[in-house]
């Protein structure tokens, strides 16, 4: 995809590599996959510059409506389909489509995509372009009126929630008429019958979602600039819910939990991607696709291996199968647990994909600290209150709370939900652990918890919230069990873990400061009276060569030591301090 002469706000397909800052990571990944010869539904992109202009003006920038019409025309020409469903329909810029024969309807997804990956934080609207007449055309083309009706019902729900702001539960309503009525009653607005109005308002809604509470909380947690904005990818729909030979799934080229070099993922037959990531439906292991469609499964694994090698990193790949044909929708570096981050970094060095210097910049100090966190002591017994799928490892104890607001107000709590959604992110950030009744290893709760390195168990079954809330529990997200009470733990060390030991050796060679487990003399922060400590870090006397104390195992303490010209930090765990020093010295991740 590359900016085409005449377009101010759009990027359309071409052979040139686009700017990630301009088109966002999602659209950049589409260009990358297409350039590798992989099958990708065609798309065009509304740029991040258009998002900036939207917030400056409070509306879609001048000229974007005409450019959207041109982008849709390009999709129509490539696919031989018609947006709006009827040949000769007047397009959004007043031009007439010129089709010489009847064509099937074109539906599109309207997908967010910032330059920095923010999975699940912004909105995506599927099946856009459907109307009563388009539903009839889709039913005629597929021979399945129930499928066409379900597409219409789903779109109406997407639009009602994400564009019109409906707060009612819409997923269980039986048909489009019921969803329309619920949206109208809750918001006072109706879903437009004009597909062009649907498109314009959907693009604006995706722009607006970049400043939602959940997106702001995510950016603040990760130090991402708050004016980042988002691009909007408009992509031709493929339907995983079309028939029994269709489906949707997520594949990781390496395990995001352990880092093992093996495919890890889930597949939902006759479903759409939103069904998987929402956690409302628990999909089956990827082996289900292998048994149902071995050729498709083999093609998917070849694509995953290609993307892993080309990207020199573990990939998180979204895909859809439509009537036995595989389509790739996105590939991005996978969010991973601390254990997986270390294992993958070391493995990539062994494979010759990256250097040791790159490896130490693939693992953060916080991830190293997380990996050195306690695990349950062997032989400990306690009542198992719930069990599910381990989605993000770790052991945490705390009181179980039911809402993200309670998690924020209750330090050291465990958030227990039926399933999580982007609006729960502020509570997931505050909680020590997350437990859900529904969802699998690629659900929203699982993906966000791995990004946060928060202990998470998903798919514990109905009644889990009622059973756990208010009790003190221990979440063992390595085994997927939730226990009664607070249980004793044990901790790993750098000495008994080969991956940690190798990473620490490489980090020592890159670090601007030495870290040792024992040293004589030096400045001891633990001996400084509390009233003499400012901003959490005591003043280091001029000329100090060695410092000790828990504060110097923190990123703030490491920064203070470097600023004071310290040469040696004494710490129980070397690796987190070394990684923090490399980062403070300017290492880029």
This entry's quaternary arrangement is: single chain
Q: In CATH, what is the homologous superfamily of the largest domain?
A: ATP-grasp fold, A domain
Estimated helix fraction: 25-40%
Annotation field: number of helices:
21
Runs with pLDDT <50, length 5+?
1-5, 87-101
Structural class: alpha/beta
Q: How does the major sheet shape up?
A: 8 strands, mixed
Total beta strand runs = 28
Number of domains: 5
Trace the largest sheet across and list its strands: 14-21-20-16-17-18-19-15
Strand content: 15-25%
Structure, described:
It holds the Pfam family PPDK_N. With about 600 residues, the protein is an alpha/beta fold. It folds into five domains: about 1-130 and about 195-235, Dna Ligase, domain 1, CATH 3.30.1490.20; about 240-335, ATP-grasp fold, B domain (D-amino Acid Aminotransferase, Chain A, domain 1), CATH 3.30.470; about 340-370, no CATH class; about 375-490, Phosphohistidine domain (Glucose Oxidase, domain 1, 3-Layer(bba) Sandwich), CATH 3.50.30; about 510-585, no CATH class. Helices cover about 35% and strands about 20% of the residues. The chain contains 21 helices and 28 strands. Strand 17 (about 415), helix 16 and strand 18 (about 435) form a beta-alpha-beta unit. Helix 4 (about 130-140) runs antiparallel to helix 5 and helix 19 runs parallel beside helix 21. It is globular, with a radius of gyration of 26 Å. The two termini are about 25 Å apart. Mean pLDDT is about 90; it is low at about 1-5 and about 85-100.
